[in-house]
Amino acid sequence: MSTVFTTVGQYDHVQDQVLAWDSSASISRAFNVGKAESQALFNLMKKVPAPVVSALRDAVRMRGMRPFLMHETISKDLFSDAFSSGINSMGAWEGPLTNKGGDENVLLVVKRMCMDWDKLVPSLKKPWSVSSTTALHAVCGGFIHFMEVLRTKIPATEFDKVSGGIKDQFMAGFLDPDITHALETTAPPASLEAVGFLRSVSQEIENRQTREFEEKEKELAKEVADANLKHISVKVLADMETLKDHVPSKQKEAREAALDVQYLRQRQNIAHIQLPVPQTNTTGGALVKHRRSIEDSLLSAGFDVTTTLALLFEKPVDATGADRRGGCQTCLVLCSDIRSTPWTVPSAIGPMKLIKVNEMIGYDPDSRPGATARAEQILVLCKLFSFCFESNLFFVKGRSATICVSVSRKGLNPHIEIIDAYIQGLTLQDQDHIVLFDILPNRYVEFGRAVCAQKIAGKWSAVSYMGLIKDGQKDVMQMMEEQVYNSWDAGPHAPSKMRVRDETQAPKLTAILWQNDRPVFPDSLVNKFPVGTEQHTEVLKMKNALEALWPSPSSNTPARNVNVPPRAVGEPDFADTTLLDLTREVDLAKIKSEDFAEEKLAVCQGKSNKPTIVITKDFRIYLANFTTEEVVHEQGELFAFNTGAFE
Predict the structure, then answer these.
(1) Over the stretch 623-638, which tens digit does the pLDDT of each residue have?
(2) Which one-letter DSSP state was computed for residue 565?
(3) 0.85 cut: is pTM over it?
């Protein structure tokens, strides 16, 4: 056979003769060789692919036909197309272990045959038989199959890294037991976990991929966090730049206070000041001194004292010569701008009738008013009050002026006439209001009582009164508070007692919140990043920078301009609704007490005309009457305090 095998390919006429024969028997007769040799020669020339024949020729030339390969191995079609080593325990792998017209598996078998034979010592070298070659064919086919599975499971770059090392181990024969075991115990396509030598490789690659994926995720998360931090930082820093113009400072507070004063000065206020009049014991020098002290105080406060009016009085017709009250009193009229004020300032008011001594408060025939009481009710030495008028809003502003004078009483009518003289020429709209601010009211607050009397009479609906009441005037304080102050303070037209600052002064922020006239760093920004990360630390730095820029106010400092919503009150509206049917919720069936056989969980004995409540083991509720008399219960609480006690 070796002669024939060697001759074929060297002598074309012999090769042509073999190709001309169509069976192994004809070859056997022609060359006088055995059946195995003739079949092997026939397969080599007819069935085995040319690359495989070339590989076998090279293997035999170097090692010899007889010591390396048996004729039977070639004759059994192991190197031919359509041969499969998937038999017996490997029957499930028949398809993957079949030669499919290609020569990859067969060439790998030939290479393994050579390497396995070469590494044996001469005493152990044997020719490849059918059984040993078939087993090697299965191992090579399994190796190719599992490597293709590995190629589909891992990236190409990873496959290129590990495939060379795995193939070297396979060519050395180290992987044969694992492949044989996988072919005998699994079915195609089989998992890489079933192949021992690939299990660690795939697990290592999977772990490395997992680590790389986690690292990429961390990098991506860090990039996203950095981008979010950059976005937040831009907004927060922009907001802090905006807030720098709104940080409270003494200069800004002083400016706001100046604006408040300017606001009050620009209001349509007018003041009526009654100057001192001579008394029996008053010298001319003292009178001028008192008048000048008032005028000097007003001038130092920036008022114009050139506008005056006269109060004319009329004594009772039955007045005696002892009544030395004068018939005229000079008054000063003060306002923000006398040229533009809407008030009509009269030149004189009166004549106004003065009251008699017996009409004074506290008078009785037995105990006539003493000197002190009369001094409190004689003609005014000085009277200072102011009117305030403005559309929609009104406010009263007191001036810093120290005027130490006594006050007196003239009765209600003169005071009504004085007020009428001031408001007579005003054209009031529906939304206009007049406030009379009595800075130095007399003992019995007669300007206030005059306003109260007129309002009670249905007049002066647009007039309100305010006065600086002293401790010694507590007897009229309750009347003033109830009839004047409370009415004005709770009225719908009452303005703010301070200048309402423009709400548009609040800065326009994008990330930082603005609450109660101050910035607030949102908790959502602080909690946006995990604690301990660089981004969380940066956000905390921005929060601390904001708190340093705008410190928190003390707990006892009230916030300004906080809009407190009014308390809502109401009651349910059952219009167009259907109430629940009592019979749908409560079983009104009656059960006699002797027939009640339910096991009781608890009993609450009714007291004070309350029903007895029975709760059974299945948590059903019964209303019971264990007396012999009929009981009628009115509507009321069923489950509440003081309905009874459980036994």
Answers:
(1) 888 777 787 777 666 7
(2) P
(3) no
